[in-house]
Specification:
This protein is an alpha+beta fold. Helix content is 37%, strand content 20%.
């Protein structure tokens, strides 16, 4: 089991902030994160009462340059 199921969007944003990402802006229900030295951005959907789907979360973690284990350690 990967441990990436039923994660709350706001906690996911906070976890990426711990990894050095910063909130650049919010566009509708999506929070956009950026990090100096990275060409990619992270767009995290923050829909009330919903969790982030596992496939999207894996892609966000990959784009952030983290492993799943590193992300989960920061999430705790």
């Amino acid at each position: 089991m990967s441990g990436l199921h039923n994660l709350k969007p706001n906690r996911v944003v906070k976890t990426f902030e711990k990894a050095g990402w910063q909130i650049a802006r919010q566009t509708g229900s999506h929070i956009i994160l950026s990090k100096e030295g990275h060409t990619s951005i992270l767009s995290i959907p923050v829909h009330k009462g919903k969790t982030i789907k596992q496939g999207l979360l894996r892609k966000l973690i990959e784009n952030a340059g983290l492993s799943v284990e590193e992300f989960l350690n920061l999430y705790k």
